Amino acid sequence: MEQTRPYQREHYRLPLPVSYPVMFSDAATIGEGLVTNLSVFGCTIECAGTVPEQTILLLRLILPDQKESLPIEQAEVRWVRGQQVGLRFGHLERAPNLRLHLFVWDRMIERLQSLKQAGVPLSYS
Q1: Is residue 37 part of a domain?
Q2: 68 in a domain, yes or no?
Q3: pLDDT digits (tens, 9 = 90+) for 24-43
Q4: CATH code for the domain in which residue 86 is found
Q5: pTM score
Q6: pLDDT of 44 above 70
Q7: Structural domain tally of the chain?
Q8: Which domain holds residue 56?
């Protein structure tokens, strides 16, 4: 009998909920939406229009850490469910990649500190 194992992510993901504006485009599409889930390898966005799976998009994330948008030159549409679109980031230039990693890491540290202050026991297993 095949044993199932619990689903585990291999990378940090911001604690939910998040809501950051995003603009996206490709040769046939220009749109905007909200990032509702973010990691250093991808995100989920909510948008009014539909985007076909496997489309490669150019993204501009509007994050609260700086006035300039965070450019992501390649984001592949991995799945679409209604108005939600799952994206996997392709190659990022060095500076945007570092900014994204630092942004996600800083939010994770803030979340851990708030849980610690609230007296929530933390498990690191």
Answers
A1: yes
A2: yes
A3: 999 888 999 999 999 999 99
A4: 2.40.10.220
A5: 0.81
A6: yes
A7: 1
A8: 20-117
Residue 54 lies in a domain: yes
Tokens of 22: 């995003």
Place of tokens 């679409």: 80
Least confident of 7-11, 17-21, 54-58, 65-69: 7-11
Residue type at position 28 = A
Tokens 């500190």 locate to 113
Q: Rounded to whole angstroms, what are the CA distances from 36 to 20, 28, 67, 120?
A: 7, 24, 20, 24
8, part of any domain: no
Task: Give the tokens for residue 63.
Answer: 């994050």
The CA-based diameter of the chain, rounded to the nearest angstrom, is 54
CA 13 to CA 62: how far, in whole Å? 17
Q: Do residues 74 and 93 touch, judged by C-beta distance below 8 A?
A: no
Q: Which tokens go with 122?
A: 């933390």
pLDDT at 4: 53
